[in-house]
Amino acid sequence: MKTTGSAMWQGGIKDGKGAISTKSGALNAYPYGFSSRFEGRPGTNPEELIGAAHAGCFTMALSLILGEAKLTATQMDTTAEVTLDQVDGGFAITSVHLTLEAKIPGATQAVFEECTGKAKAGCPVSKLLNTKITLDASLVE
Q: Among 16, 33, 87, 126, which is 20 to 30 Å from 103 by CA?
């Protein structure tokens, strides 16, 4: 499978403006720029998009792994906090912290921890990111 994402940029780094689009149309010329990335202004940024992609990938991978264990979640909510730090020579994504809250009827804590660990290590986005990835996972009633 192959898909695409694209970006357009006009201007300098601080005064410029960009737009991000996806093949599916989920994002269509959605604005991004220096102010949305570093100053908290409206718009998106690459780290936010990576976080959404990682949360989605991890959660889908966990669904597959739970199915292999004969379990089905009634609800899973995952947040991926992506940290962008200034390092020697520029900026780098230095960590991603996943937080999961899941309702999985019949799951024991031990099976839940085994499945979440496999999903964290095995989802394609986790494999892509060469950074520290941590996980807090809560199995709720």
A: 126
Q: Which amino acid is it at 17?
A: K
Residue in the structure block whose two tokens are 């394609």: 124
**C-alpha 95, offset from chain centre:** 11
In one-letter notation, the amino acid at residue 105 is: P
Map tokens 């959605």 to a residue.
30
pLDDT in tens, 67-97: 999 999 999 999 999 999 999 989 999 999 9
pLDDT (tens digit per residue) in 4-55? 999 999 999 999 999 999 999 999 999 999 998 888 888 899 999 999 999 9
| CB atoms inside a 10 Å sphere around CB 91 | 12
CB 56 within 8 A of CB 76: no
**pTM, full prediction:** 0.91
Q: Are the CB atoms for 43 and 33 separated by under 8 Å?
A: yes
Tokens of 68: 């292999």
Separate counts of helices (H) and strands (E) for the chain: 4, 6
